[in-house]
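Morning F.,

Quick status update on the modeling queue. The single chain you submitted on Monday has been processed. Sequence for confirmation:
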Amino acid sequence: MVFPKEFLLGAATAAHQVEGNNTHSDLWVMENLEHSIYKEPSLNAVDHYNRYKEDLQLMKNAGLDAYRFTIEWARIEPQKGEYSPEALAHYREKLQYCHEIGITPIVTLHHFSSPFWITKAGGWENEETIMHFENYTRFIMKELGHYIPYICTINEANMGVQITKLMERMKKGNGKNSDVQVGINTDIKENMMLYYKERGEAFETDPSNVNEFVSPKSENGIRIIMTCHEKARDAIKEMDPRIKVGITLSLHDNQALAGGEEYAEKTYQEDFLDFLPYLEKDDFIGLQNYTRQIFDQNGIRGLEQGTRVTKMGYEFYPKALGNVIRFVSKHWDKDILITENGISTDNDEERIEFIDLALKGVEECIDDGIKIIGYLHWSLLDNFEWQLGYDQTFGLIAVDRNTQKRFPKESLKHLGSIKKRI
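Structure tokens below.
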């Protein structure tokens, strides 16, 4: 494979999934409820907070040169208006270390987890969240902006739309985890109502008013999220115009069989096209894809018996990435950054196969003139897959969570070798 010399090739993580002990976040509270729908709590995760230098050095040794990671809002601002010197120093040192060893940092300001106090006050359906997110962004820019060349304001800003549709399908009895590109536990438990009751008590509100980021969203909630993005982007550009700013979206490769065309078009409209008016001033779009969805006259078609699937239950379909890039490029003529693409599998040879087929699609898109600036594999480390816990294995590096010892996989070396050939 041949990519431009400046092409960014690396991996991605999310703070809550890898750092451990994110005790001031809303998700930490939800994970630790007695009747939590999380299959297990995150606890120490894979201790990336303390071991990031080791992990970054493994990336560098393999040949990778870009790393997308989160600056965790709940750590930076554990209480409203009160900023943590320790957390700020940590992320400053992490950014400095990236530059020191020649890795381009790509920072995400919000990746699903929020400060407890944000969600307690109404979360992503509360108008005041816009002001709080802008204030947080301005603080990060003032203290750390000069270290950051790329910023993704919000991860998968369209996830609320997709979760809303999943919940509607679940009510009809045909919703499943693989319908969304995030670890949602769709195994309805007998104690589900107890969980929602405990969650309401924890946040001191009616259970229906607990609006964490990864939950169904109203139209107003989506507007609030996207206004947060616009305010953050404008603040970043005001304070340092050189920084490239974008957002990330979760996008399936939506394919239609006869009679399913309207469903596929509607899904792209809701998941992507409806968001474009908010992105007009962005420098790039972060594209996140893992598989495809097939629609027939009844909507999403279930997988046929014998279909090759990943550990997450997704169809093994790395060609989806190239297809989504081509669709996006018809409506977006600026830079595209692949901010997540990967596979949960215990067979690393399968991961290498997935990487090669996905990157072949990227290469073909570049050859056709589509402006793709980089590919970030999900994930650098086997980690905490949200409500599904630690069973899923997306990482280029395995971790023994009893000892936190790292075990680089052959796929890490393989991905790095592609960069070394550029």
